[in-house]
Amino acid sequence: MNTKFRNILYGTMLGVAGLATTGCTDLDEHLYDTIATENHEFTNEEIMAMFGPVYSSLRDVYWGWYSYADMMDQSSDVWCIPYRIGIGWGDLYVSMHKHEFHSQIAHFNDTWTRNYAGINACNKLLGYQQIQENPKLVAQLRGYRALYYYILFDLFRNIPLDTEFEHPDGWLPEQAKPQETFDFLVKELNEIADDCGTTIEMGKLNKYAIHMILAKMYLNHNAWFQDDSDNSWYGKCIDELNQVIEGPFSLASAYSANFMDDISGSPEIIFGIPFENKYASGNYMANMWMHVAGKATWGFDGWATGGAAVMPQFLDTYDKDDSRFKDCWTGGQQYDASGAPIYYDGEPLVYTKELHSIDNPGCYPFESYRLVKYEIKGGEYGSSYDDVPFFRLADAYMMKAECLLRLGGYKGETEQTAADLVTKVRERNFLNTPEKAKVTVEKLKGGSVYAYGHRENQGKMGEADKWIITNEGGQDIELGGMLDELAWEFVAEHHRRQDLIRFHIKGSKENVYNGKSWFCKDANPDKTDRHKDIFPIPKSALDGNPKLKQNPGYADNKQ
Questions:
Q1: Distance linking the first and last C-alpha atoms of the chain
Q2: How far apart are CA 430 and CA 323, in angstroms?
Q3: 468 within 8 A of 454, measured Cβ to Cβ
Q4: Contact at 8 Å (CB) between 160 and 548?
Q5: How far apart are CA 512 and CA 405, in angstroms?
Q6: For 404-427, how does the pLDDT look when each residue is reduced to its tens digit (9 = 90+)?
Q7: Gap between the Cα atoms of 31 and 25, Å rounded
Q8: Beta bridge pairs of residue 505
Q9: Largest CA distance in the chain
Q10: Which helix (H) or strand (E) holds 89?
């Protein structure tokens, strides 16, 4: 068979050698050039080097520019990147916030290509006999491939599904039906779980992480397929989560322990993506949020843009005694490392909670509290080397609680069990007011405290305010209290878009993601239209593969 190294992968130029440049160990480039014959006997060092693209692609997915970390929140109700008056940003970030999705937004293209880069790297290595003879290596590769496909499926749904590396010249992949991809992932993950083992090591998939992916798939099944007729998927989710909860994990005593530069010591981490100084940097959370003058608080001298902004409506939902507020946000007058007030252009640096608008006129440089959830270190570090807590035990507890509430109980566990699980997660955040840590079933099943509605000020600084405010509230959200709990615990952890899609407005099939307004994003007037649950297939992928069809609701194949 005539084969080729695929330099066109689903419409994008990719190469394995090029993918290895950000590997997690010091890799010799020539190792990739020696993989020319199946008769070559690989050393352990060579095998580990070959895994570089498998791991580095996930770091690129999560924290490459226009990353998964961004896109999961920027179209949600917690934070955004507005046009910053006198600074910049805006453009495609405004489109993400307003749900004006189109196929040329860079987030879609880059997330598509990075995930398929990881899949391509896995498929390549799975073709080598020496690796095929090692069940643990095969399980890691199949697990990583499934994780990449899980991300793609969640974001785009109608995706090419391929498990081979070599194909004839001119070969192009077909789009798989969503049910086909879902079934493939469930089968694949069940087959490899035990072979992934129980060792907890940053960057390596263990069987508990595999159960978490399965649990996520079952939790989101009904939302993904827009069919609530079968609640058994929530029971399947609980079955997976119980295997995680029975594992060697425990909640960290401090919330912040999960967001340090090195989180390998947190007992809560089920699967983490390691970032480290030399070969694996790239977490730019601090750079994206900090005003240039605000770096002085940490003695941080790297780049900073002051781009991102948190919605005041979300900040107003916090209980004043919830320590997660201070763990995640800084506002008001800012001080340098010595305690002196920070000034910028003769003005005190005061972060204000209120914002003007996403783009008319935009946000002024000092507007918005700033995210400090991920550890910020001095010098050039910032958050560049902060690990990512992809799955942690609090997530397993909260997912189980949500499923128990949706089912009204399961296998002897009740809705009160759900409240107890949420309370357990809250306890470390109300140490001074422990009575507030306890949450009731009634609270979790009640409405959200989020004051949904359009809220922007189109007046310019120094001129009269021009407020545009609508009031929708959140009392009509099913399990709105549970949705609030998820926001407080997992803000800026790639959760919020998926959660908003899963929660409905009472008495309808309309979800919060489409059916509610916040800041400058308006609710979809067509309450039956949920095509924005998924993003459009990137134009570059459509241009490179005529077999691909654009997702429903996004005009034609080129828009």
A1: 36
A2: 6
A3: yes
A4: yes
A5: 18
A6: 999 999 999 999 999 999 999 999
A7: 13
A8: 477
A9: 76
A10: strand 88-89
CA distance linking residue 481 with residue 479, whole number of Å: 5
Tokens 């924290």 found at: 63
Two tokens, residue 551: 């997702």
Tokens of 313: 């409506």
- Three-state DSSP class for 455? strand
User: How far is Cα 15 from Cα 450, in angstroms, rounded to an integer?
Assistant: 46
CA distance 392 to 180: 29
Pairing between strand 388-392 and 467-469?
unpaired
Q: What are the structure tokens assigned to 464, written together?
A: 């009269």
Q: How many degrees, rounded to 5, is the angle at CA 122 between CA 120 and CA 123?
A: 65
Quick count: other Cβ atoms within 10 Å of Cβ 18?
Answer: 12
Contact partners, residue 137, CB within 8 Å, separation at least 6 = 47, 125, 131
- Per-residue pLDDT tens digits for 17-52: 233 333 332 223 323 333 334 456 778 787 778 888
**What CA–CA distance (Å, rounded) separates 81 from 94?**
7
Length of the chain: 559
Four-CA torsion 378, 384, 387, 391, nearest 10 degrees: 120
Cα–Cα dist 410/401, whole Å: 11
Q: Please provide residue 101's backbone torsions phi and psi, each rounded to the nearest 5 degrees.
A: -75, 140
Q: Scanning the structure block, which residue is given the tokens 């006129």?
A: 361
CB 276 within 8 A of CB 316: no
What's the pTM? 0.92
CB contact at 8 A, 156 and 124: no
| DSSP 8-state code for residue 88 | E
